[in-house]
Amino acid sequence: MSETKIALVTGANKGIGYEIATGLGALGYRVGVGARDEARRESAVEKLRAAGVDAFAVPLDVTGDQSVTDAAELVERQAGRLDVLVNNAGISGETGPGWVQDPTTLDLDVVRTVVETNVIGVIRVTNAMLPLLRRSTSPRIVNVSSAVASLTRQADPDIEIGPVMAAYASSKSFLNAVSVQYARQFAGTNILINVACPGLVATDFTSFHGPRTPEQGAATAIRLATLPDGGPTGSFFEDDGTIPW
Q1: pLDDT averaged over consecutive 10-residue blocks of the chain (245 residues)?
Q2: Hey, which residues are catalytic here?
Q3: With the C-alpha atoms ordered 44, 211, 221, 151, is the resulting torsion angle positive or negative?
Q4: Are 76 and 132 in contact (CB under 8 A)?
Q5: Rounded to an integer, what distance in angstroms lies between the CA atom of residue 173 and that of residue 146?
Q6: CA–CA separation, 141 vs 215, rounded Å?
Q7: How many Cβ atoms are within 10 Å of 160's Cβ, its own excluded?
Q8: At what angle are helices 168-185 and 108-115 packed, to 10 degrees?
Q9: In whole angstroms, what is the distance from residue 11 CA to residue 178 CA?
Q10: Concatenated DSSP letters for 49-81?
């Protein structure tokens, strides 16, 4: 089996996910580009390869059981194991004016759709990839969340945390809670799992509003994906350190 480390990044065809793939590729990782849109996926792989990254396409819809099973089988055929899984794919869900998701009028179908991608999708992908991660000598899992998931910050009236987003913010809090449960389950093993906040990044996800570039947004996830043995696990990070739950 090759000594080259293997990474899979979901939602890697654009934005922060693409830059995570780029950064890991620059560090010598072979990178699986997980994405559901075929044209964007293939275009991303071509761009990465042109930049010198050893990239391969992974058709992947995190909301589909068969798609995720097929993706795990593809990674096994391509590489035989997985060293890094970055669960980056996510959606905000429909919002009203000013990016607001008012809990008092929220369409429950919006909540279901957001949770299906942002939480259940992460569980589905992680569990499917675990047999491959367990073959690694230093497996790392990074779940991409958001500072709006912090209940501590959300509950503090003196902290500006952005608009009320009852579906999106709550889904990321749910993701954080699930990540902690994985960390507890992995205690005593060599699997490190952490949560990364990219900050407010100017991508199509934010309608290109935000002070940070995708490259800046990818930095924390890349750092957590490449932690040394004995590094932190079960924590929530941004550029400046940990974020309170």
Answers
A1: 90 96 98 97 98 98 98 97 98 91 97 98 98 98 97 95 95 98 97 94 60 88 98 97 97
A2: 168
A3: negative
A4: yes
A5: 9
A6: 19
A7: 7
A8: 30
A9: 20
A10: HHTT--EEEEE--TT-HHHHHHHHHHHHHHHSS
